[in-house]
């Protein structure tokens, strides 16, 4: 980059994502105009991994982005977004709300991804090459320290989670089901040897995490992809809500138990030491 | 400010809120250490109006901040915040969500404040000094153009909104119920001459807007104060939710009507012109 | 849907986006498992338009999603997201921030989309069929009422905005450059007859708005697609920031002009009528 | 509560914050009308602690809310909020952004509060009553496991942080500097015996955490109070930004080092295995 050749690398900000010049925007080195109209999944891969994906990688990346898609009103972020726009009819506010609802209890594969990444790093460092033995020690450790292994079990599906199975199939057919994913499966195989949990599948979040690692995403980026993947559905719900013309949604009082005893403010202020008339 | 004397005013950013030096933070000209522990309402006034309030102004400002306080689960922002933290147990995400729910249909006095401010500006410019006549023309204009005047009417209260009445009383006793507020009342008096709306009170949002203008806030700042005023209540609700241990709240299916017909993806893709196996 | 056949349509919530049953999730009528792995752009179309797109529509939809992609640190939402995660290293918070930065001054084609949609509705209602004559009256009206027509002009590009040109080419080749878009072009042609603005192109936001209308999106949905389209780039920037290990970014003091005079809090409190020691 | 007497406690939602009836809102048992106009700090205490504070508690609570107040443009959340509203001129979006910027690296006393709370619980459970001995073991443990103790050290202040000192003085004068705070001080006293860190003060965040625990807040609530306390300042900054008329703020290019090499998209797609013309 001739323009920056003599520029210090000590500047306050650094970026390698894009370069913006008056007449040209270069995205990871490619002219924006050349990228407009290419499939969005491939472009998302380019932005994050800093290189163009192969067709196989694009297929898996699309699977990652479509692994959840929507969950009706059974997803906290969608419910929250509809409440928000019922009062503030603003698309941006609704989408931001849905993003904020991803976390420890839904839509964030990052805990499982971090688990897989760290266990695989330890496996590599241990150097034994024996997946089964390593998996056994992981489950024993988890049992002893009462650590929950993320991504196992489902409230409905026993044995197999069909969404997880479909995701795994796509990754395997693409040749992108790597060693970390196989280690995770070995851990799962060991985990279900305990009869009390023999029916626990690897759930869809677990598989999404495994694929995210296989495709080179950081744990945080796996959460970002889960969020982006659900935003078209959230958009559809926000449109429904804007068209519903039910301003100011509330929690239906019939669903709420309220337990409050009436009190007297003047008496209680005096009791609390205030000097009031 | 000796330090900045020779500094160009052309810098990219300008601020007059605070000055931060290594050993000293000056807030609107006062040392932060001297302000710590003063009443929060007075400090909020200082930050926004750039001068210390009188005791009367502080009283009215506290009224502004306590005008809503909480509305149980009957407020969209509180519902949304609880949904969000049921999935992402994070205080910041919950508070941000509640802020985003302020808007055209609740918790944003700014539309009413803008109405009062603009009408009062026109009244001053007209120069007649006759509040009643001007109010009459405002209502006639609104009726002709079918414009809803913000801040009038309440789903429950007829004639008087007791919260609005309390707020007005505090502002009047403080001597801070100014001409814009009186003009708004005159418009209301004219408005309820129509028998069909004779029972419409000025509601609490309307009074909050009138007081905001009286105390020198911009319309946007009136919304900010309404938001800040409810955040302690939102905090209490988020704590309740974090303690409820009900991860992943959903909209109860019994409250939802879903209308979807099943379709076949392969057939429909072909119909749409795709070439698929 | 047998389960709901006898269910009242009067329930508090209604949705037609998805149906969630214990063992099955149906998205716009299709089994989630059948959709996993299809291209994300097509799935976004399905969620929002409630039907599968044709290949041509998918191409245009991908163009919509890739029309901006990234703008380095020259985009307020990206800057804001990096500031946020420098203090709160949390992907969700960063993505939500970027979504909130879409608005009147960037990343929200909805104002232009609303303009096109409303003018086209008036054109249909007028019934003359003469695009040029109607366009002339639109520009005359705008000039008379000093209304800015959204989507015209660019700080750098004169005559043609190459990104806009690429987007238009894709839509035209797909046969999806409809009458609203042609009306918008006619308005533009009329607009640049004024020599002072003869060099104003339709900019990329204007073209994105025109395509959004052509493809059946609501104005708010056009903003949603612009936001979603930039989130992979925002994800990349957040990853850069999380790896930068520069906690607590600030506005560099050298970029800031601060104008504050020191004051004495005790003296000023007394002046304001407070009774303090 | 007569109305709910026969209502099951099994309802989906439960709350004890407020009860909303058509004509009455009861906040923690008090009529909203009776609370309007009371000092905001006392009301915030009521909402969160579910009882009215004493005058001493109110003083300390106000100290908590005014402990930071503002930090000019040297606070990531304020910078982020100004970037956001420069594109989306919306108060709510700006305030939400500022809330999201509280986190591990600033404005979130909760890590320190959690540390104090947990160490104090262990101290109670240990039952020895010897603060100094327990403090010594805490520091030894931290040194051995290389755990950073939160709330110690300041980039500028050596020995004493004057803001922390002021906060402590207020809490002590109010008689609200309890055993957990004294334990934290004992840990600090032990910590600075190491000559390399003899100049580390307890910083303002550490003292805010100690006071939060003393006043009965949960760690998450301490973060909420820090956020609420800074929002009036953020409001002032947003107003400045809305008045600055500098739409679409960017990171000044002169502050940015961009490192990107140009690439050819067609060649690279072919290399990646794509079949393109």
From TrEMBL, chains A, B, C, D:
CDD domains: CCL_ACL-C (cd06100). Its EC number is 2.3.3.16. The keyword Lyase applies. It is an enzyme of class 2 (transferase). Pathway: Carbohydrate metabolism; tricarboxylic acid cycle. Keywords: Lyase, Transferase. One of its GO terms (cellular component) is cytosol. It holds the Pfam family Citrate_synt. One of its GO terms (molecular function) is lyase activity. One of its GO terms (biological process) is tricarboxylic acid cycle. SUPFAM superfamilies: Citrate synthase. Belongs to the citrate synthase family. This is citrate synthase (unknown stereospecificity).
